[in-house]
Each structure stands twice: as C-alpha cells, then as structure tokens.
Amino acid sequence: MTFHFKTPEESPGFLLWQLTNHWQRLQREALLKLGITHAQFVVLATILWLSTTGKKEISQKIISELTNIDKMSMSDLVVLLLGKKLIKREKSKMDGRAFSLSLTDKGKKVALKAVPIVEKIDMDFFNRKTPNLMQFSQIIKKMIS
User: Fold this and answer.
1) Which pLDDT value is given to residue 114?
2) How many Å apart are CA 21 and CA 32, to the nearest integer?
3) Domains of the chain
4) What is the pTM of this model?
C-alpha cells in the first residue's frame, strides 16, 4: 500500500483534524462552566444574533442553513436546549407546519455570557498563530461554500 503523503504532518486533512480538535477542546472546557456544549452555544448565539437583525421568526431551518448543522443534529440540539429551558418554541404565525425559536431569559443570559468567552478563545487561538487571519478566514469560507 502506498500513501500520497509521506508523513501524517503533510496531510492537510490530518492537520485540520488536529487543529479543530485542539480548538474544540478549548471551547468545550470554557463552555462547560456555563453548562453548554459548543454546538449548543452555536444555536444560542445564532438565535441571539438573528433576533438583533429584526427577523420576525427564527426557525430551525434558518439556523440549520446558517450554521451548516444538519437537520437531525439541529433537532437534537433544539430538544436539549428546550429541556435546559434556554430556548422556547412556538407555532409559527407564518407557516402552520413550522415553529419559531427564541431565547428564554435564562438562555439570553447564558448566550450573553458565552459570546465573549468564545470570541476571546477565537482571538487568542487564531490571532496568536495566524498573522494573516483575514486571509485565512477567506480561504476557509471558500472551502466550505
């Protein structure tokens, strides 16, 4: 058997995997103090952000499309966040088949505490090691679109 890369360190996929594991570990440890996972944070922060844009109704579909979280995982996250009383779900006024999600007071407090924690980790992690952060971000955006 032959490998395309001579060493694992030459494989961009392997390096990306290591990088994301390291970054996720930092996020996980910080968010544990607030009782949420990083994926739960992403949903809370997305609802928080969308609510500031004047969006009338925020559906699971909108959050899923914006975050690239698959529908099944999104459903699981919504159930967990409902159970933790961090979000509430109401029948959509615009689509009888859909639900609108919003933060509870508790959820808003958790999200507002979590955003600066997550952003600080991002800034420390990426700024310290990535002098061309904007260029790096543009490359990532191209790769995921």
Assistant:
1) 98
2) 16
3) 31-144 (1.10.10.10)
4) 0.87
